[in-house]
Amino acid sequence: MSISRRQFLKIAGASAIVGLGGISAIDILQRGQFEASQVSKDPKALVGKRWAMVIDVKRLDEETMKRCRDVCHRIHNVPDIDKPKEEIKWIWKEDFEHAFPGQEHEYMGEDIKQLPLLVLCNQCDNPACVRVCPTKATFKREDGIVMMDMHRCIGCRFCMAACPFGARSFNWRDPRPFIKKENPEFPTRMKGVVEKCTFCYERLAIGQRPACVEESKGALIFGDLEDPNSEVSKILRSKYTIRRKSELGTRPSVYYIT
Amino acid sequence: MLETALKGSRRYWSWVIFLLAIIGVGFISYLYQFRVGLGITGMSRDVSWGLYIGQFTFLVGVAASAVTIVLPYYLHNYKKYGRIAILGEFVAVASVTMCMLFIFVDMGQPLRVLNVLLHPSPRSVMFFDMVVLSGYLLLNILCGWYVLGAERKGVPPAAWIKPFIIIAICWAPSIHIVTAFLYQGLPGRHYWLTAIMAAKFLSSAFAAGPSLLIVISLILRKFTRFDPGWEAIQTMAKTACYFLIVTLAFYCFEVFTAFYSSIPGHMHPIKYLFVGIHGHTKLVPVMWLCTALATVALPILIIPQARRNESALGFAAVATFLCLWLEKGISLVVGGFVPNPFERVFEYWPTVPEALITLGVWGIGFFVLTILYKVTISVKEEVVFDKYGEKQVQTE
Fold first, then answer.
1. What is the tens place of the pLDDT at every residue in B341-390?
2. Nearest-neighbour CA in chain A from B14: distance (Å)
3. CA–CA dist A29, B270 (Å, integer)
4. Three-class SS state of B280
5. A9–chain B nearest CA distance, Å
6. Do A172 and B38 touch (CB under 8 A)?
7. Which chain A residue has the Cα nearest residue B347?
């Protein structure tokens, strides 16, 4: 069968109108028919207005820090890539001197300079990474958690340039071969997307505290800053705490007692 | 008009085939990157942008610099630019094309590129950059192509094009200002966090762009019958000269602010770039080469006798372009990431596949430029006289 260009255009145009019109007609007549039904919240879920963490550095020892890191990386399928260039990390050990640059001085004892502590995403209240993301793949939830949608991320790495804490990692290649034992409960990532700590949003949703907090033997304290009776609020009221690079105005939600 | 690009001398075709070969090598390298991921580049967790974003930044400037030709011609009726305004516009088209490709090859998930449109985020500078770059590309294709078509027909361009030309003139600086905002609005990257960034971007662009056009004009004079005009070349040299001085001054302002205030975070990147930190010195030769190139180019551009010498001018233009390419195309990006947020130094150097992909994108840019220029020159050679009745074709 042969059709002229004119006929072809007519048929194509008509089909497009019918096709698009049909979808909108159904959408108008039976609104909501095609939307996924909302999954109701687990009644046990931990609910907060602004989640935060206090890290009591004195109570951290090498073994605790290793356990915190290991559990996080294990349950979140964080690949174990040995090359520093392509390393992916959500929570890791850092020393005081490098976690708090500018706070050290030449008369400080080596033991203080090298005081080990844990660093992770600060879940900033005014996050630069969220501001710069061109696709809203990273966004702030109502409870203050800075989240990542790894299916939307285009891998432009603007967020990595914007984060003043070096908290974000990029999948420079397929991470899956580097995962020792995959946790089927949590998604793995693909190459070309950015990832970071998400304060264990998946655990909060079922009423559990973040995994590192559970493993920390009380060195990491987690809670809601908007709740004056939460443990974190009480600590912040009564003890001297510091935050990393607070002068930059990102308002980190991770506090340190040194 | 495009058909004129299909007829050419042996030399023209050799050049086209040469470019296609480079593009081919770049494309094969890109397939490798596409399969394995950005791990094949020299970029890392700590220096997460590199050569690609550097080229993008530099080329946005080259694209914007078309305004240094188009503005004097259209707003001040500077007749000597009548013949070459189109050269500037087509350099902008080729440059923006390269910019977009450099962003594309830098993406971890290139197939999701449309997410930028599907989820528009007006708070992100990158979203605006995409908007202004696409707009600028369209404006330059429209204005350049239409005005050239009118010249071919021997009629003055219709009045409706004029508003688009004016918009393009206003639009040009915006693309580079927005690109500077990508950098200068980030907390904690001391090398970038400076209000003078946008100004420095514009000034270095307005030195690099005219330098490129000088080199192109000298090549066209030598290898084609079209004459861009010696006086036009001299005026571009003066533009490049003034803006090179301004750029160097701006850089000195940065150095003064960092070192007189003695704020460590501000001094570190500059120290890293010029003398290295803790024995990490990969970019030191780059910065000193950059300095040396500026030092030789500047006197030639300033001293009238030297500037009027064709070979000396050609050399100075190449040196200026190269100098600013090293500064903006490489060191600017890396300087923002070193030292890292933990005040540790992790260095960056591009890998071979990364360099080949970069070369491939430049190849595409020059291919686009070659085709557009071939059309332009064919038209000019056919028309013989420019708009003002002066001969724009050299006699054999």
1. 999 999 999 999 999 999 999 999 999 999 999 999 888 887 777 777 77
2. 37
3. 64
4. strand
5. 27
6. yes
7. A85
Tokens of B44: 């890392």
Q: What pLDDT is attached to residue B148?
A: 86
**pLDDT of res. A40:** 77
| CATH number for the domain formed by residue range(s) B1-188+349-381 | 1.20.1630
Q: Decide if pLDDT at A26 tops 80.
A: no
Helix boundaries (H) for B111-229: 115-118, 125-153, 161-184, 197-223
The number of angstroms, rounded, from the C-alpha of A246 to the middle of its chain's C-alpha atoms is 19
Question: Shortest Cα distance from B131 to chain A (angstroms)?
Answer: 12
Structure tokens at A156: 């432009």
Q: Please tell me what DSSP assigns to residue A37.
A: P
Distance CA B65, CA A146 (A): 39
Full DSSP string of B225-254? SB---HHHHHHHHHHHHHHHHHHHHHHHHH
State how far the Cα of B164 lies from the Cα of B172, in Å rounded to an integer: 12
Is residue B360 within 8 A of residue B23, CB to CB? The reply is yes
How distant is the Cα of B103 from the closest Cα of chain A, in angstroms? 8
Mean pLDDT, rounded, for B242-269: 96
* Mode of pairing for the β-strands spanning A254-257 and A51-56: parallel
What residue segments make up the domains of chain B, in order of their start?
Answer: 1-188+349-381, 238-340
A166 in helix, strand or coil? coil
Nearest CB among A135, A170, A250 relative to B115 is that of A135
DSSP string, B100-121: HHHHHHH-SSGGGTTHHHHS--
Contacts of B342 in chain A (CB under 8 A): 94, 98-99, 101, 166
Interatomic CA distance for residues A221 and A217, integer angstroms: 10
Spatial separation of the C-alpha atoms in residues B259 and B274, rounded to whole Å: 13
Beta-carbon separation of A155 and B38 below 8 A:
yes
Q: Which of A137-141, A199-203, B136-140 has the lowest mean pLDDT?
A: B136-140
Interchain contact, B346 vs A84, CB within 8 Å: yes
Nearest chain B residue to A248, by CA: B187
- Is A164 within 8 Å of B106 when comparing Cβ atoms? no
DSSP state, B330? I
User: How far is Cα B394 from Cα B53, in angstroms, rounded to an integer?
Assistant: 41
Using the Cβ of A169 and the Cβ atoms of chain B, whether some distance falls under 8 Å is answered with yes
So what's the architecture of A51-257 in CATH? 2-Layer Sandwich (3.30)
Is pTM, for the whole model, over 0.80? yes
Q: What angle do CA B54, B56, B59 make, to 5 degrees?
A: 105
At B187 the three-state DSSP class reads: coil
Tell me which long-range contacts B2-7 makes (C-beta under 8 A, separation of at least 24). B2/B371, B2/B375, B4/B374, B4/B375, B4/B378, B4/B379, B5/B371, B5/B374, B5/B375, B5/B378, B7/B378
> Average pLDDT over chain B, rounded to whole?
93
Q: Does the distance separating the beta carbons of B36 and A85 come in below 8 Å?
A: no
Residue of chain A with shortest Cα separation from B185: A162
Reported as a single tens digit per residue, the pLDDT across B300-352 is 999 999 999 999 999 999 999 999 999 999 999 999 999 999 999 999 999 99
- Residue of B193, B189, B176 whose CA lies nearest to A162: B189
- Between A16 and A71, name the one with better pLDDT: A71
Q: Closest residue of B to A119, CA-based?
A: B342
**pLDDT score for B234:** 96
> Where along chain A do its domains lie?
1-36, 51-257
